[in-house]
Amino acid sequence: MVAAAARAFLVAILIALPAMMLPDVPSDSTQIVALLALLAALLTFVEYIAEYPSLVEFRNAPPFNRMRYVALLATVLILTLIARGTTQPTALTEALSGLGYAIGLAMDFPFSPVRLMVLVAPRDASPEALALIRTMAGLAYLISLTTMLIFVVVVRLLDWPIQKRAFNFWVNLPLFDPTTGGDILYRLKRDSHFNVALGFLLPFLAPAGLKMASSWGATPNLIEFQPLIWTMIAWSFLPASLIMRGVALMRIAALIEEKRRRAYAQADLQPA
Q: For this UniProt entry, which segments traverse the membrane (predicted)?
Protein backbone atom coordinates (compact mmCIF):
# COMPACT_ATOMS: atom_id res chain seq x y z
CA MET A 1 0.00 0.00 0.00
CA VAL A 2 2.85 2.39 0.82
CA ALA A 3 4.54 1.71 -2.52
CA ALA A 4 1.27 2.23 -4.40
CA ALA A 5 0.61 5.48 -2.53
CA ALA A 6 4.14 6.71 -3.28
CA ARG A 7 3.69 6.01 -6.99
CA ALA A 8 0.34 7.78 -6.98
CA PHE A 9 1.91 10.81 -5.30
CA LEU A 10 4.74 10.93 -7.84
CA VAL A 11 2.26 10.80 -10.73
CA ALA A 12 0.20 13.62 -9.20
CA ILE A 13 3.32 15.76 -8.74
CA LEU A 14 4.30 15.15 -12.36
CA ILE A 15 0.96 16.39 -13.68
CA ALA A 16 0.72 19.36 -11.34
CA LEU A 17 4.33 20.50 -11.74
CA PRO A 18 3.85 23.10 -14.53
CA ALA A 19 0.83 24.65 -12.79
CA MET A 20 2.76 24.87 -9.52
CA MET A 21 5.95 26.36 -10.98
CA LEU A 22 4.73 28.70 -13.72
CA PRO A 23 3.82 32.25 -12.71
CA ASP A 24 0.41 33.84 -13.22
CA VAL A 25 -1.52 30.61 -13.75
CA PRO A 26 -5.30 31.25 -13.81
CA SER A 27 -7.27 29.76 -10.92
CA ASP A 28 -9.58 27.87 -13.30
CA SER A 29 -6.60 26.20 -14.94
CA THR A 30 -5.16 25.30 -11.54
CA GLN A 31 -8.39 23.62 -10.48
CA ILE A 32 -8.57 21.58 -13.67
CA VAL A 33 -4.94 20.46 -13.27
CA ALA A 34 -5.57 19.52 -9.65
CA LEU A 35 -8.55 17.39 -10.68
CA LEU A 36 -6.54 15.65 -13.39
CA ALA A 37 -3.68 15.01 -10.97
CA LEU A 38 -6.09 13.53 -8.43
CA LEU A 39 -7.67 11.24 -11.03
CA ALA A 40 -4.29 10.07 -12.29
CA ALA A 41 -3.09 9.43 -8.74
CA LEU A 42 -6.23 7.44 -7.95
CA LEU A 43 -5.86 5.34 -11.10
CA THR A 44 -2.19 4.68 -10.32
CA PHE A 45 -2.96 3.69 -6.73
CA VAL A 46 -5.69 1.27 -7.79
CA GLU A 47 -3.47 -0.29 -10.47
CA TYR A 48 -0.49 -0.85 -8.19
CA ILE A 49 -2.37 -1.96 -5.08
CA ALA A 50 -4.24 -4.67 -7.01
CA GLU A 51 -2.63 -8.09 -7.29
CA TYR A 52 -3.32 -8.20 -11.03
CA PRO A 53 -3.26 -4.96 -13.05
CA SER A 54 -5.85 -4.09 -15.67
CA LEU A 55 -4.20 -1.24 -17.61
CA VAL A 56 -0.54 -0.71 -16.68
CA GLU A 57 1.78 -2.84 -18.79
CA PHE A 58 5.14 -4.21 -17.61
CA ARG A 59 4.26 -3.46 -14.00
CA ASN A 60 6.57 -6.16 -12.67
CA ALA A 61 9.29 -5.75 -15.27
CA PRO A 62 11.48 -2.87 -14.09
CA PRO A 63 12.95 -0.55 -15.21
CA PHE A 64 10.52 -0.11 -18.14
CA ASN A 65 7.96 2.10 -16.40
CA ARG A 66 10.59 3.74 -14.20
CA MET A 67 12.58 4.87 -17.22
CA ARG A 68 9.47 6.29 -18.85
CA TYR A 69 8.52 8.16 -15.68
CA VAL A 70 12.01 9.59 -15.17
CA ALA A 71 12.16 10.72 -18.80
CA LEU A 72 8.72 12.28 -18.56
CA LEU A 73 9.54 14.00 -15.28
CA ALA A 74 12.82 15.35 -16.67
CA THR A 75 11.05 16.69 -19.75
CA VAL A 76 8.29 18.35 -17.74
CA LEU A 77 10.73 19.88 -15.26
CA ILE A 78 13.18 21.20 -17.87
CA LEU A 79 10.50 22.66 -20.13
CA THR A 80 8.76 24.25 -17.15
CA LEU A 81 11.99 25.84 -15.94
CA ILE A 82 12.69 27.22 -19.41
CA ALA A 83 9.18 28.69 -19.63
CA ARG A 84 9.50 30.15 -16.13
CA GLY A 85 12.83 31.68 -17.09
CA THR A 86 11.21 33.85 -19.75
CA THR A 87 9.60 35.97 -17.00
CA GLN A 88 11.67 35.09 -13.92
CA PRO A 89 15.17 34.29 -15.17
CA THR A 90 17.77 32.62 -12.97
CA ALA A 91 21.20 31.16 -13.63
CA LEU A 92 19.68 27.70 -14.01
CA THR A 93 16.97 28.77 -16.44
CA GLU A 94 19.48 30.77 -18.48
CA ALA A 95 21.77 27.74 -18.73
CA LEU A 96 18.91 25.44 -19.72
CA SER A 97 17.62 27.94 -22.28
CA GLY A 98 21.07 28.32 -23.83
CA LEU A 99 21.56 24.57 -24.02
CA GLY A 100 18.11 24.01 -25.42
CA TYR A 101 18.54 26.78 -27.98
CA ALA A 102 21.75 25.19 -29.25
CA ILE A 103 20.13 21.74 -29.40
CA GLY A 104 17.07 23.15 -31.14
CA LEU A 105 19.17 24.87 -33.79
CA ALA A 106 21.18 21.68 -34.39
CA MET A 107 18.00 19.64 -34.85
CA ASP A 108 16.14 22.30 -36.87
CA PHE A 109 16.98 21.21 -40.39
CA PRO A 110 14.60 20.75 -43.36
CA PHE A 111 11.93 18.05 -42.87
CA SER A 112 13.12 17.27 -39.33
CA PRO A 113 10.49 16.77 -36.59
CA VAL A 114 11.73 19.91 -34.83
CA ARG A 115 11.34 21.99 -38.00
CA LEU A 116 7.82 20.64 -38.47
CA MET A 117 6.87 21.61 -34.90
CA VAL A 118 8.23 25.12 -35.43
CA LEU A 119 6.06 25.42 -38.55
CA VAL A 120 2.97 24.63 -36.44
CA ALA A 121 3.39 27.93 -34.59
CA PRO A 122 0.80 30.64 -35.31
CA ARG A 123 1.58 33.01 -38.16
CA ASP A 124 1.65 36.00 -35.83
CA ALA A 125 4.13 34.37 -33.43
CA SER A 126 7.04 36.58 -32.45
CA PRO A 127 10.68 35.54 -33.03
CA GLU A 128 11.00 34.96 -29.27
CA ALA A 129 8.01 32.59 -29.33
CA LEU A 130 9.45 30.69 -32.29
CA ALA A 131 12.79 30.38 -30.51
CA LEU A 132 11.03 29.05 -27.40
CA ILE A 133 9.12 26.46 -29.45
CA ARG A 134 12.34 25.39 -31.17
CA THR A 135 14.16 25.14 -27.84
CA MET A 136 11.46 23.04 -26.17
CA ALA A 137 11.01 20.81 -29.21
CA GLY A 138 14.73 20.11 -29.47
CA LEU A 139 15.13 19.29 -25.79
CA ALA A 140 11.99 17.14 -25.61
CA TYR A 141 12.96 15.17 -28.71
CA LEU A 142 16.52 14.67 -27.48
CA ILE A 143 15.32 13.34 -24.12
CA SER A 144 12.97 10.91 -25.85
CA LEU A 145 15.73 9.65 -28.16
CA THR A 146 18.11 9.23 -25.23
CA THR A 147 15.50 7.26 -23.27
CA MET A 148 14.91 4.92 -26.19
CA LEU A 149 18.63 4.28 -26.65
CA ILE A 150 19.12 3.58 -22.94
CA PHE A 151 16.23 1.10 -22.96
CA VAL A 152 17.66 -0.71 -25.98
CA VAL A 153 20.99 -1.01 -24.13
CA VAL A 154 19.17 -2.37 -21.07
CA VAL A 155 17.40 -4.96 -23.22
CA ARG A 156 20.52 -6.02 -25.09
CA LEU A 157 23.17 -5.94 -22.40
CA LEU A 158 21.30 -6.49 -19.12
CA ASP A 159 19.05 -9.32 -20.33
CA TRP A 160 15.79 -7.50 -19.62
CA PRO A 161 13.24 -8.58 -18.34
CA ILE A 162 14.64 -11.79 -16.82
CA GLN A 163 17.83 -10.49 -15.23
CA LYS A 164 16.46 -10.89 -11.68
CA ARG A 165 13.10 -12.65 -11.86
CA ALA A 166 10.88 -14.69 -14.14
CA PHE A 167 8.67 -12.75 -16.53
CA ASN A 168 4.96 -13.17 -15.86
CA PHE A 169 3.24 -12.67 -19.20
CA TRP A 170 -0.30 -12.30 -17.84
CA VAL A 171 0.62 -9.71 -15.19
CA ASN A 172 2.87 -7.59 -17.38
CA LEU A 173 0.64 -7.58 -20.47
CA PRO A 174 -2.91 -7.37 -19.10
CA LEU A 175 -4.33 -5.88 -22.31
CA PHE A 176 -2.92 -8.65 -24.53
CA ASP A 177 -5.35 -11.51 -25.11
CA PRO A 178 -3.33 -14.58 -26.17
CA THR A 179 -6.43 -16.64 -26.98
CA THR A 180 -7.43 -14.69 -30.08
CA GLY A 181 -5.75 -13.98 -33.39
CA GLY A 182 -3.68 -17.09 -34.02
CA ASP A 183 -0.16 -17.84 -32.85
CA ILE A 184 1.03 -15.63 -30.00
CA LEU A 185 4.50 -15.21 -31.54
CA TYR A 186 3.03 -13.86 -34.77
CA ARG A 187 0.83 -11.41 -32.87
CA LEU A 188 3.66 -10.21 -30.63
CA LYS A 189 5.95 -9.58 -33.59
CA ARG A 190 3.15 -7.91 -35.56
CA ASP A 191 2.29 -5.60 -32.66
CA SER A 192 5.99 -4.88 -32.13
CA HIS A 193 6.52 -3.83 -35.73
CA PHE A 194 3.35 -1.74 -35.68
CA ASN A 195 4.39 0.09 -32.49
CA VAL A 196 7.89 0.83 -33.77
CA ALA A 197 6.62 2.05 -37.14
CA LEU A 198 3.94 4.24 -35.58
CA GLY A 199 6.40 5.62 -33.04
CA PHE A 200 8.80 6.53 -35.83
CA LEU A 201 6.13 8.24 -37.94
CA LEU A 202 4.24 10.13 -35.21
CA PRO A 203 6.80 12.96 -34.77
CA PHE A 204 6.29 13.71 -38.46
CA LEU A 205 2.54 13.07 -38.65
CA ALA A 206 1.53 14.93 -35.47
CA PRO A 207 2.71 18.39 -36.67
CA ALA A 208 0.91 17.82 -39.96
CA GLY A 209 -2.26 16.91 -38.08
CA LEU A 210 -1.96 20.00 -35.90
CA LYS A 211 -1.46 22.17 -38.95
CA MET A 212 -4.57 20.73 -40.60
CA ALA A 213 -6.58 21.17 -37.40
CA SER A 214 -5.50 24.82 -37.16
CA SER A 215 -7.84 25.66 -40.02
CA TRP A 216 -10.73 24.63 -37.75
CA GLY A 217 -9.33 26.40 -34.68
CA ALA A 218 -8.78 23.11 -32.83
CA THR A 219 -5.05 23.36 -32.18
CA PRO A 220 -3.61 24.16 -28.72
CA ASN A 221 -2.42 27.68 -28.10
CA LEU A 222 1.34 27.34 -28.47
CA ILE A 223 1.88 30.87 -27.21
CA GLU A 224 0.73 30.07 -23.67
CA PHE A 225 3.15 28.10 -21.54
CA GLN A 226 1.07 25.19 -20.26
CA PRO A 227 -0.44 24.18 -23.63
CA LEU A 228 3.00 24.53 -25.20
CA ILE A 229 4.66 22.33 -22.58
CA TRP A 230 2.08 19.54 -22.74
CA THR A 231 1.97 19.64 -26.53
CA MET A 232 5.73 19.17 -26.70
CA ILE A 233 5.58 16.37 -24.16
CA ALA A 234 2.82 14.52 -26.00
CA TRP A 235 4.60 14.99 -29.34
CA SER A 236 7.92 13.61 -28.05
CA PHE A 237 6.96 11.14 -25.30
CA LEU A 238 4.17 9.19 -27.01
CA PRO A 239 6.32 8.10 -29.99
CA ALA A 240 9.19 7.17 -27.66
CA SER A 241 6.81 5.15 -25.49
CA LEU A 242 5.44 3.32 -28.53
CA ILE A 243 8.92 2.44 -29.77
CA MET A 244 9.95 1.22 -26.32
CA ARG A 245 6.81 -0.94 -26.17
CA GLY A 246 7.62 -2.34 -29.60
CA VAL A 247 11.15 -3.23 -28.53
CA ALA A 248 9.80 -4.83 -25.34
CA LEU A 249 7.26 -6.93 -27.25
CA MET A 250 9.93 -8.12 -29.66
CA ARG A 251 12.08 -9.12 -26.70
CA ILE A 252 9.19 -11.08 -25.16
CA ALA A 253 8.59 -12.79 -28.49
CA ALA A 254 12.26 -13.77 -28.66
CA LEU A 255 12.09 -15.26 -25.14
CA ILE A 256 8.98 -17.29 -25.98
CA GLU A 257 10.55 -18.50 -29.24
CA GLU A 258 13.71 -19.56 -27.42
CA LYS A 259 11.70 -21.42 -24.78
CA ARG A 260 9.72 -23.22 -27.48
CA ARG A 261 12.93 -24.20 -29.23
CA ARG A 262 14.34 -25.69 -26.04
CA ALA A 263 11.11 -27.54 -25.35
CA TYR A 264 11.02 -29.02 -28.87
CA ALA A 265 14.68 -30.03 -28.65
CA GLN A 266 14.11 -31.71 -25.30
CA ALA A 267 11.08 -33.56 -26.67
CA ASP A 268 13.13 -34.82 -29.63
CA LEU A 269 15.82 -36.15 -27.29
CA GLN A 270 13.41 -38.17 -25.20
CA PRO A 271 13.19 -41.89 -26.12
CA ALA A 272 10.02 -43.00 -27.91
A: 6-25, 32-49, 69-87, 138-158, 194-213, 233-254
Q: pTM of the predicted model, to two decimals? A: 0.90
For residues 39 and 144, membership in a common domain is answered with no
Return the closest-CA partner of residue 212 out of 122, 149, 120. Answer: 120
Residue 219: predicted pLDDT: 65
Is 80 in the same domain as 163? Answer: yes
* Residues 170 and 103 occupy one common structural domain: yes
> What's the whole-number average pLDDT of the chain?
88
**What residue numbers bound the domain in which 120 lies?**
61-269
